[in-house]
Amino acid sequence: MSDNPQSGHNLWDTPMFTRNAGATLDRSLRCACSQRAATRNRSQRSGHRLGKRFAVFAALAVGVLIPNTSQAQVHWKDHPMNLKLYASKMIDDWEELVCFVELIHRESTWNPKAKNGSHFGLGQMRSRWYGQQTARKQIRLTLTYITKRYDGRICDGALAHSLAKGWY
After folding, report:
1. Ranges of the chain with pLDDT below 70
2. In this structure, how many other beta carbons lie within 10 angstroms of the beta carbon of residue 100?
3. Long-range pairs for 134-139 at CB < 8 Å and ≥24 separation?
4. Distance, C-alpha 112 to centroid of its chain
5. Which residue ranges make up each domain of the chain?
6. According to the model, what pLDDT value does residue 75 have?
7. Reduced to 3 states, what is the DSSP secondary structure of residue 139?
8. Residue 110: what pLDDT?
9. What is the pTM of this model?
10. What pLDDT is attached to residue 52?
11. Rounded to 5 degrees, what angle do the CA atoms 80, 86, 89 make?
């Protein structure tokens, strides 16, 4: 540093420059902040509008493309393949499962609403109450009946009796 007091003095220390620079800097910061805020608000508003548009489009697409899912679910719920899969969960032995599938096919062709005189449902039991149960409950009840009457033997018991006598 020199001995001259003016030599250490620079433009930043002048009151006028400091005021002008500070005001300019403050103004440019406020402007930049407000521009970013405006951009953010605009994008949020357009995103909000886009979100509403997407929601309306999605609701219309679902309504048009999938007209009535509840009926489709009910139809597939009692589809014979689904019922056979359910029975496979209940019967461990493959041969017994094949015999059960054949037995139910002979009785009702896997129609849980089947009726033959006074016999109802998948297993063609002589009970109106049995015919009013769900298809899965009819499977469970039929397996319980086979367990009690034929000691759980489907092939040697229930199916063999059905083939010999026409009923089980």
Report:
1. 1-75
2. 25
3. 135/77, 135/78, 135/83, 135/86, 136/83, 136/86, 138/112, 139/83, 139/86, 139/87, 139/90, 139/104
4. 26
5. 11-67, 74-165
6. 62
7. helix
8. 95
9. 0.56
10. 58
11. 145
